[in-house]
Every structure is written in structure tokens, then in C-alpha cells.
Amino acid sequence: MRSGAGLPLYWRVCLINGLVFVVGTLALALAPITVSATVLVSEAVVLLLGLVGIVVLNAALLRTSLAPLDRLSRLMETVDLQRPGRRLPESGSGAVGQLVRGFNAMIERLETERGTSNAKALAAQEAERHRIARELHDEIGQGLTAVLLGLRQLSTRVPADVRHDLLEVQETARTTLDEVRGVARRLRPGVLEDLGLHSALAALATEFSAHGLKVQRTSTPGLPDLGTERELVVYRVAQEALTNVARHAQARTVRLALQRQGSAVVLAVDDDGQGLGGAAEGTGINGMRERALLIGAQLVVGVGELGGTSVRLTVPLEPVR
Predict the structure, then answer these.
(1) Angle at 50 between CA 44 and CA 55, to 5 degrees
(2) Are 205 and 217 in contact (CB under 8 A)?
(3) pTM for the whole structure
């Protein structure tokens, strides 16, 4: 590996070792000491001290020259594109400095490309959600509604001995229609588009409360407008966090809060469940992190005030550049 502004690493190591050998040779040549045919104790001590000095000097020079490689190795082992921004300090003009600058540029490029591809993937996912929700509402929903109307008319003309069975079928169709509408709402948050983020979060809390989870919702009035993209990310993170609580946490109570803190808006979801318990983050949390990166937000998952899992999404109010 070569650098236009410095020597290749191989030659730098050779020069450092050569310099140490020259210094050691000059020290032995100019020092007022001699070595007898039978080495005396005092002479052995001098030679040992000289050897130690040469080794220490060589180690110090090599460490100074190669220390960035150690830092680079540690960063390569821990780098996580879902937590961007980690870089090595760029110093020096030799081969090691060139390697560090190349690595930082590579990470920058990977983070940019990952962000672009994730944005496209999530946009396609939202478009597909909207398409499926529209088909559920317009086609399956209308079909089930027609079935319900037909069953209602038929119930007035059937014999009394089969009317009870027909009513059970009618109730099953009505329950299925409600479930289809619920799936469509979760796929496409129409209330978010029509009434805004506060109303969408309130509807989300009401939906999960109806399934046995006690949701305590707090919100700061007069929050600034976050824009369509950021509001959608906040809603999806809240939706995913509540879904995880309902499915995995075995919690009874969850707090859902949307508040302004300084120059940011913070979404907090805390539950009193069993927590992560040291388990690796699943696809749900990874999906939330991906969405947070798209709008320059920060997602932190840890232990909450209620003893369970805490999910905090910090959305800066400044526009993302």
C-alpha cells in the first residue's frame, strides 16, 4: 500500500528498525566501555541496559507509527451502520493515515448508500401497505358488507329452526368485517393523514386499550408541525413499540408520551413488563432504528421507569440535511 504523501508502511517499519540499530551501534561505539573476553558482571549489566533501551525505543517508535491500525481494528469489530457517525481521527500523511482516511470514507459511503436504499425500501413498504389497505377496505370490506346485508334480508324469510344458525353466521361475518377494517387501519393510518399525529396516537392508545392493555397517554399541547415524513415515523415507532409490548412484554400498563424537550420532540413508550432480559434486538426494533435514521432521529431502547422496556425516539426540530 502506497501513499502519495508518505512512504509505504513496509519501508517505514524498516527505517524505524534501521534507525534503532544505528543508534544502538553508535552508542556502543562512542561509549567509554569495553567488553572483555570473559564478560564481567558490570559489562553484562551495561549490555543488558543497552539492549533494553534499544527494545524500548523500537517499541515506542513502532507504537507511535502503528497505533492508528489498532484503533482501526477495534472500530472495524464494533462498527454498526444503524448507529452512524463513528469515525477515526484523521492525522498524519503516511500510509497509516491514508488507510484511516480511506476507511472513514468507506464508512461514510456505506452509511449514505444504506440510508438511501432503506429510504426507498420503506417508501415501497408504505406504498404497499396503502395498496393492501385500500384493497381490504374497498374490495373485501365491501364484499363482506354485501354478505351481511344479504344475510339480514335472508333472516326474515328463513324458517325459525334455522334462524339461530343464520344469525351466528351473520355475527361471524360482522366480526370478520371489523377485523378486516382494523387491519386496514393499522396498515394505513388514515386518522394520521386526516386529523394529525395527536389524534392518531390517541386512536392507537384506544385500540390497544381495547385489547386489555392499560395505556396511559400524555402529550404536550401546541407541539410544532413535524411534517408528513417525521409524523409517519413517530406513529410507526409508537405502533411497533406498543405491538411489541402487547405480544412479548406480558405487561399490564404502558405509558405513551409525546413531549417537546428543548429543540427536539421526544416519543417515549415505557411498560411494566418483563423487559428484554439481555435478548438480542429483533426485527421490530431494527425496523424502528431504520425509520429513525431516515429523519435524523435517535432511538434508544433500554430499561424504563416502570421496570420494563423503554423506547425513546428523539426527533430534532431542525430539518435534516
Answers:
(1) 125
(2) yes
(3) 0.59
